[in-house]
Amino acid sequence: MIRVEMEDVIAVLQLCKPYIIGMIMAVIIGVGIMIACRKMSKSRRFFVRGNAVAAMLLVIIVCANMICFGPMSTLIGLATGNGTISDATNEESAQVAEDIMEEGIVLLENEGMLPLSGTQKLNLFGWEAVNPAYGGGGFGGKKDLDEILAVFSETGEITELSGGFCTLTRYMEHACGRIADAFRGRERITVSEVRDLFGTGRKNAKLILEYTDRLGMTRKTGGESERTLAVFKKSKD
Fold it and tell me: What does pTM read for this prediction?
């Protein structure tokens, strides 16, 4: 049986809010009518109150059915073990999971750097260097990282990309060369094609193209995800 997550329950309750409000309003109005008719004759009061109760029950039953066969139908089916997930939903979930995986994986090409030889000291800067957990020994503070990045930036060893990202300059030079090769015999390239070219995620592919835009190597054309070589633009002017 598929497990029901509390986040899903809360989301469904949000969808049920209009129906719940409708039931509460029906009860309030019904009780108000029953109180308002207290000065009527006994027979007429009995008739009015009876109809008010019947109307309240009818509204509650109708709203409850609309909830069960509407927002909560899938949740009830999954909770009882009778629910199923469509192929379209499975494919969409798999695509989202793949996109998340691609965004979280970085593959670096080994250009003779590994294995290390003759190296006695090595510093590794990872995610915690940019987003440190301030506590304990207090190592990896952002101030120290900014100073380190400033030194490497002055020497030209690293290149700053958009969004505050940094990478080795030689990696970007290599990327520019591969993009130039990809343009041979064509005038346009898309973010998806750059993603496949480097075997990386869409976010990293956009960072690469934004860098080539900044260099004046490429320019946006048509859609947001399309680029053309700047030389093509110049040749048409």
Answer: 0.39
